[in-house]
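User: Predict the complex with adenosine monophosphate.
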Amino acid sequence: MDIQKTILDLREELNLHNHNYYVEDKPTISDFEFDQKLKQLQDLEAQYPEYFDENSPSQRVGGTITKNFQTVVHENRMYSLDNSYSKEDLQDWEVKIQKVLGNVPLQYTCELKYDGASISITYENGKLSKAVTRGDGFQGDEVTNNIKTIRSIPLKLKGNYPQKFDIRGEIILPFEGFEKMNLDLIEIGETPYSNPRNTASGSLKLQDSAEVAKRPLDCLLYFITGNNLPFSTQFEGLETARNWGFKVPTQSKLANNLDEVFEFINYWDVHRHDLPYETDGVVIKVNDFNHQNELGYTAKSPRWAIAYKFKSEQVTTVLNSISYQVGRTGSITPVANLQPVQLAGTIVKRASLHNADQIEKLDIRVGDSVFVEKGGEIIPKIIGVAQRGNQLEPTKYISHCPECQTELVRKEGEANHFCPNFYGCPPQIIGRIQHYISRKAMDIEGLGGETVALLFNNNLVKDYSDLYELTVDQVIPLERMAQKSAENLVNGIEKSKEIPFERVLFALGIRYVGETVAKKLAKHYKTIDALSKASLMDLILVDEIGDRIAQSVIEFFENQNNSTIIARLKNFGVQFEIVEKHNPNATEKLLGKTFVVSGVFEQFSRDDLKKAIEDNGGKVGSSISAKTDYVVAGENMGPAKLDKANKLGISIISENDFINMLNES
Ligand code: AMP
Ligand code: ZN
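Assistant: Here is the predicted structure with adenosine monophosphate placed in the model:
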């Protein structure tokens, strides 16, 4: 077998499937098959480092750390766009350009204006070579490693492309992915992101590209610049880019006059709300490059293009008061209470203010008349002061917790203040118990969030371990409770003792420990005792556990309160260990033998093979040493490994030999 060819074919195939899935939205193989092929490529690349390619689809998972992003000068400047807000503005613009061009027939390309972070990506010989943020338009930050993780951006092009060119576009976060990210944050007790655009733009500057790879970013492209381009109009440029493999939205239209431009605008002013991502206007571009060249640029923007900004639905109303909510982890969120007002079909009474900086930036004060806008997000936001009210002093952010009067703390680098009184602050206590009983956690039937608050307020519970001592008689007197519902509640709590350890660990509400992390930790440590004794270093060595999570776990177990609660839960019979499922095929045939697995196999994936070894009592070693008893060699086993095994006199067995070993009685 020709290894190099296999590797190249796999790369080609994976690139194609990536394109079908992320650009065309028409996958032709299952996710499972895709993962298998990717795994096969990764294994081969690991064995044959001589065929490394920085543009291999295996590189999409990221993993490079960039401490300082290099400043790079744009070969072609990244211009801004002039704005227009009305049809008259557009007519004025046409008059101005026709003065230069001499009243020629003009076509315009109409495109949507995607609201994200602009990016310029350089391709050389059909390969992605560099990606740079817009910066000040003259120079930006090189973020190539991060950009490569975005699956819809081709690493290799198809067709007849020029030797070198730049393509420009917007990095965006579609609503769905954005909301999913926020749900994940809420789950671990963190403050959600405020909007998709800032989150997309912040993602580009993350130091760890593996983190970027996890974010559901997308890239929409709209402009190619370079020498010897094989097209002479903007519209052809879009089509060509699409043919080379880029994701170029298909809504763009060629208009023969301004009326057709207006039609496009009118249509999308309404229908943009059906798009899966945020847009804030339309960009109108003179189609013909000859005309574009004649028109040229002002100091800031091309004369041949203009943005038309959609009016976002906006009203003014009075800010009645600001209240401060305390979350489960003590994080404080300021909320604006507004004079109720009709906006985009709903009555708005409240708006999110995010944090102290936001209030300071807007300089809003109680009594002000404020502009309220509804963008892509569900919660409306205040975008500025329309008219100052009577309050002369700027708003003073609270210094103490509104619920427990403890002095607030703001950690370096964090946007939100928080109340440090974790064990005495009612909304934090209630929030933690509500999290504990929630569906993804202990899933306690017959007990809801409001009842938790009642139980707390009636001094029946002060942490989640108290739940297990509740009696029917104690619960009946509560509002809306009766014999039956009280029994259900107590039974529901009793049943939660069967919930497996990984979910219990999630239910404890350790900061940053969401569902997935809880699973990882439970699987790795197997018991709460082992986890609680783990050192910082030990935790960080667990796959996908970073120092933020590790630190938080350490702090949780250092706390005496938590130890007491866990000890009580244990006494009540809550699961604090993984119960290993008994494998009916398990034997002890390989007891005392250490195996090293190398190469690619036909009947097993590598993981399955390792599992088969462990299920039958054997040990799996990571590298060949004097302690190794057998090397199970698949296809493409590395020559260095083979050499070493031979030198140490270790038996090298095939996949079939291994199967025979298991079948021997
Ligand atoms: P602004 O940031 O409001 O000055 O708008 C200019 C920016 O809009 C450009 O720098 C691009 O990043 C962005 N943009 C979004 N969609 C398009 C598009 N279809 N064509 C050109 N620019 C666009
Ligand atoms: Zn408090």
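Residues 80-81, 111, 113-114, 118, 170, 222-223, 283, 307 surround adenosine monophosphate (ligand 1) (CB under 6 Å).
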